[in-house]
Amino acid sequence: MKMMLKTPMTDSFRCSDKVSSVLTAVLLILMPLRVQAQQTVWGLPQYNETVRVTSVAAGSAFARDTYLSASRYSGWALGFENDSWIGLRPYRTFRYCRNTSALFFSPMTNRLDGGSTLEAGGYDFMSFLWPAVECSMCDLLIGPAVMMELDVLYNQQNSNNPVNAAGYLGGGLCVDNTFRFNVFRYRMALQATLNVPLAGIGFAPDYDQPYWYMYKYGEYGKALHFITPFNNTAITQQVALILPCRASRIRIGYTFDYIGNGLGGHTRGIGSGMFTIGCAFRFQEKEWEL
Amino acid sequence: MNRSIINRIQVVAALAIMLLPVSCSWNEEGRDREYSNTPQGNFMALWTIMDERYCFFDLKEEKLGVNWDEVKVRYSASISDDISDKSLFEVLCRMIGELRDGHVNLTSSYDYGRNWSWKTDYPSNFSKDIRDSYLGNDYIIGGDGYYYRILEDNIGYLVVESFESATSSSRMNVMFNNMALCNGLIIDIRDNGGGDLTAAEFLASHFTENKVTVGYSCYKTGPGHNDFSRRYKNELSPAKEDLRWIKPVVLLVNRGCFSSANDFAYTMKALDNVTLMGDTTGGGGGLPMSSELPNGWVVRFSSAPTFDADGNHVEFGVAPDIRVDMSDDDIRSGVDTYIERARDFINDKLVNP
Fold first, then answer.
1. Which of A25, A132, A171, B223 has its CA 20 to 30 A from that of B111?
2. In this structure, what are the phi and psi dihedrals at residue B231, rounded to the nearest 5 degrees?
């Protein structure tokens, strides 16, 4: 770690000492893990390696859930994102195991009377990726994913039904596209990822089913629905630019996350768009077998 | 594969991935109808929210002759583009007031729209001053809104002003220990406007030794007026860890008993050792939910109906076992007719069990 902090700054990447120190401190508080200085590895890990990107996120969010309110709410959002890539054996079908998780929080208001809604949510996607296209410049990876997401809304206008949740657990598809390119003599990467659930179980109250009744009568089954992209549109998309910063890498990106469905007879659309900034670390892991 | 083809595939894939969220956010706005923030938009939003989510339309049509489609036609004539917000609020309040439901309200900065005819159209049968004279100054506070004492003829008298909060097991045990030698208990919930259902259920669970089916509930499963789930049994289980009261109980009720106090009344009515005395309760047999209009006004409405043990709606109240009215002579002389009749009833039970 000391070595990383003392590495002289290059002329090409002008990251001030203050910003760099604050960012490093924040990231180390969030993710106190064993870190070692690394060789140049761009975008994707080698066999038996883990590249972990820990980011803080800030942006905006919106929510409309007719179970709670006919109004659309919007506001700012803060979050925390963790993206881990593990390199698997090169000759196996799946070359990478990727785990993307995030937690976010957003206080929102509606457009008119200052009514407010609080949102807290998170997701975790674990995908196994196969290289559909490989070349020195780019990799197009595709593979199955296990996906889980839950958003909880608390509408402060409602005294009797203030809370609703939307979420799913299922299987889906992950597509990742990584470009590698040079700006002057410095290597960079642009990474675009799309996660889409294709089938699974979604949670939403059975129309006006009160949460109190779910608890009192144990009637949770009515709140569980089989989901497909046709009745539950969910998408999580990341676009990120990976830049060199001293001995480590900085990833600057944008993450868009959205769940929209009509499960249970009510319309809901909950989404967020957040800019992320984080540091990429590389680890040597114990041997991974799939 | 040719390098240029690979590059093209990459570009197309990357563009698709980057542009998809944009199209997704466009779709979100158009997923279903969203009413405009105009007088007509707010009117239609309120009418539709009620039409799709209010649970008592058939009952109100049968008992009150309310036809919701006719209501729409009648009140939409009062809505114009230049109507003021205050006038719009008044029109909307009058429209939902047709349902005569205390759980139907419209909240704005102007006022809290309500129809309390379930209470105000009937004699109150209650004087707080007279009731307090029975409590005296040395009553015991058994929780927030729970007051009790032992009357001169060795009958316990418990006042529950509200179910906004529940009392605790330890306080119930202390109360029953204090009144262990009493011949009976009068529970006075007159003018109790309700509160938390669990608070009412918790109190009721101290008056039964066995699990009892006290009523049924269901909820709306769709926008149609008759889209309901199956009826779920409301079972009252005894408070097993606490002391329980098995001596005679008289529950005093009036038109001011609403919502969870109404639930408490129909729950207690299903118990063998409990006698309801007074006037029919105010009702409020629908579990409420809330929503919002495009202009931010909050509408509350009954969403999930409840039924008594015989399967009857309790929206219009629970009838007492023994009808009692406060007499004017008693009121003038500071006597509470309800409490005196309850004392007589319990004392008679001692003589003629």
1. B223
2. -85, 130
Query: Predicted ipTM?
Result: 0.85
Rounded to two decimals, what is the model's pTM? 0.84
CB pairs under 8 A between A and B: 155
* CA-based nearest residue in chain B for residue A162: B290
Give CA separation, B279 vs A5, A230, B43, B191, B256, in Å: 80, 54, 37, 11, 9
- Between CA B295 and CA B303, with CA B299 as vertex, the angle to 5 degrees is 145
Q: List chain A domain ranges.
A: 2-283
- Please give the residue of chain A at the shortest CA–CA distance from B232: A217
Q: Is B38 on the interface with A (CB under 8 A)?
A: no
Closest CA to A90 of A60, A31, A35, A49: A49
**Residues A167-199: b if buried by 16+ CB within 10 A, e if exposed:** bbbbebbbbbbbbbeeeeeebbbbbbbbbbbbe
- Chain A residues closer than 8 Å to B3 by CB: 135
3-state SS track over B131-171: HHHHHCCCCEEEECCEEEEECCCCCEEEEECCECCCCCHHH
Q: In the beta sheet, which residues pair with residue B83?
A: none
Give the C-alpha separation, B293 to A208, whole Å: 17
List beta partners, residue A238.
A193, A255
pLDDT in tens, chain A (290 residues): 333 333 333 333 334 455 555 555 554 444 433 333 333 345 577 777 888 899 999 999 999 999 998 888 999 999 999 999 988 887 778 989 999 999 999 999 876 666 788 999 999 999 999 988 887 778 889 999 999 999 999 998 887 889 999 999 999 999 998 888 888 888 888 888 999 999 999 999 999 999 999 988 988 899 999 999 999 989 999 999 988 887 778 999 999 999 999 999 999 999 999 999 999 887 765 554 44
B296 touches chain A (CB under 8 A): yes
> Hey, CA dihedral for A35, A41, A43, A46, is it positive or negative?
negative
Q: Rounded to whole angstroms, how far apart are CA atoms A68 and A269?
A: 12
Distances in Å between the alpha carbon of A6 and those of A33, A71, A122? Answer: 19, 52, 36
Token pair of A186 as six digits: 């410095």
Residue pair B255/B122 in contact by the 8 Å Cβ criterion: yes
Q: Tell me which chain B residues have a C-beta less than 8 angstroms from the C-beta of A269.
A: 28, 31
- Could you tell me where in chain B the CATH 3.90.226.10 domains are found? 128-286+303-351
A2-283 is classed CATH 1.10.150.450: no
CA distance to partner chain A, nearest, from residue B73 (Å):
23
Report the CATH number of the B39-120 domain.
Answer: 1.20.920.70
Q: Judge contact between B163 and B200, C-beta under 8 A.
A: yes
**pLDDT by residue (tens digit) across B71-92?**
999 999 999 999 999 999 999 9
